Amino acid sequence: MGGTLFWIYLLNAILLINHEIDSAYWEEWKLFRMPGGINLFLLLHFPILFVVIYGLVLVYQGSYYGLLISLLVSLSGIFAFLAHTFFLLRGREEFRTTMSIMILVSTLFFSIVQLIYTLMLLY
Description:
Blueprint (H helix, E strand, L loop, with lengths): L1 H24 L2 H4 L5 H25 L2 H26 L8 H25 L1
Helix pairs in contact: 1-3, 1-4, 1-5, 3-4, 4-5
Protein name: HXXEE domain-containing protein
Pfam families: DUF6713
Keywords: Membrane, Transmembrane, Transmembrane helix
């Protein structure tokens, strides 16, 4: 099952990274009222992307810490979907393109699957 989690994690990581690229296009820091603009947004993504990619390595190695990071990544994907759905329902124009919505819905799906597989391996 660890091999399956690796591939699910990889697909979800690709979706999440593409969502973050889309987030830069939509100037997400404004949506969440983050100070610092694009500079802080990009600076924060160095450790975030490191953890996501390192977690994939740890999952591949069968590490317990990889499962913990997998849990964090899957919950992050679910949060991304819920947060952006909230903004969309409030009438915000960001993330309304077909591709943005496809990425968010796919992220939700793979995040739920990743969460289930991760929890199965943890318990």
